[in-house]
Amino acid sequence: MQNVVSNTQTPKRRNYSAVRIVSFIFKHLVLILYGITCLYPFVWMLGTSLKSQQEALGNPNYVWPKQGFHFEIYAEVWEKLNFFRYFVNSMSVSLACVAGVIILYSMMGFALARINFKGKKLVFYCYVALILVPGLTVQIPLYLNMVALGMSNTFIGLILPMINGAGPFAVFLFRNFFLSMSGDLYEAAKIDGCSVFRIYSQIYLPLALPIIGTIAVMNFIGAWNGIVWPMIILRSRELYTLQMAVMYLDESAFKQWNVLMAGSIFSVVPVILVFILFQKSYIRGLSAGAVKA
Q1: DSSP labels for 66-85?
Q2: Structure pTM?
Q3: What is the C-alpha separation between 263 and 74, in angstroms, rounded?
Q4: Please, which residues have CB within 8 angstroms of residue 289's CB and are 6 or more apart in sequence?
């Protein structure tokens, strides 16, 4: 009798393990194909930057150069791009956006999470609903406002709308993260005589480092890669960001794709380094701030 039971259970276990193996292989194949798809544009950009001008125009579909690697293009682009000048501009704008988003919206998220006032949930839902509004639809009103305030062609006029656009998602993450923390911590601090701002700045904000890392990485990359709004608001060449400098690197009738791709490599490397350094904090904070509340 025991032999019959064991014989009937063994095929089921084998079938179950076989399904798990097939499922494992299938999922990893899909992930590998997706990874290759994502990496292909970067590999193509790198390969094109190492081609001669004739080969870049004549054989754009070939990833790697067939007529030798032309590393001298990077030296030419480095001198022509004036990298450090525009790098400082982009870095200043990106860091200012990150600082503004963290300071302003951590306060707002804390208020919506721990301070009781009428209409709190309505304010939160209305504000988060702005995530659904495409940024391009408000470019004209924003530009008119900046001109009326005398902020066109300035870094302030460039930075403030970026901070405003990052608000809804930052508030969503901060508010949910602060709600996930124990309410007894807030009440205990109030009993000890702490002011609301002191509770926020000395207790809650230091504990929110994972979510701060996530929001910092997201907004740094967004501000660094921004191109549409800088093109609208900036006119002076000395105020250009690195992305705009790369875009105007080649203004000839026939595009020198190898030159443009070499400039793009210079502009992409800082973002890649930032993400590599802070990817663990980014993922940890994103999962912590997306909890239901």
Answers
A1: SS---THHHHHHHHHHTHHH
A2: 0.80
A3: 8
A4: 172, 173, 174, 176, 177, 210, 211, 214
Q: Which residue has the tokens 């997706």?
A: 34
- For tokens 């639809």, what's the residue? 137
| 3-state secondary structure (DSSP) of residue 179 | helix
pLDDT of the chain, 293 residues: tens digit per residue: 445 445 555 555 666 677 788 888 888 999 999 988 888 888 888 888 888 888 777 777 777 888 778 888 888 888 788 888 888 999 999 999 999 999 999 999 999 988 888 888 898 998 888 888 888 888 888 999 999 999 989 999 999 999 998 889 899 989 988 988 877 888 888 888 888 899 898 888 888 888 888 898 889 988 998 888 999 999 888 899 988 888 887 766 567 788 888 888 888 888 888 878 877 766 666 665 455 44
* Number of alpha carbons in the 13 Å side-chain half-sphere of residue 204: 34
- CA distances to 115, 126, 201, 210, 214 from 293, rounded to whole Å, are 15, 16, 22, 18, 19
User: What size, in residues, is the chain?
Assistant: 293
151 vs 232: CA distance, rounded Å: 12
Residue recorded with tokens 């973002």: 271
- Our CA angle for 175, 179, 180, nearest 5°, is 120
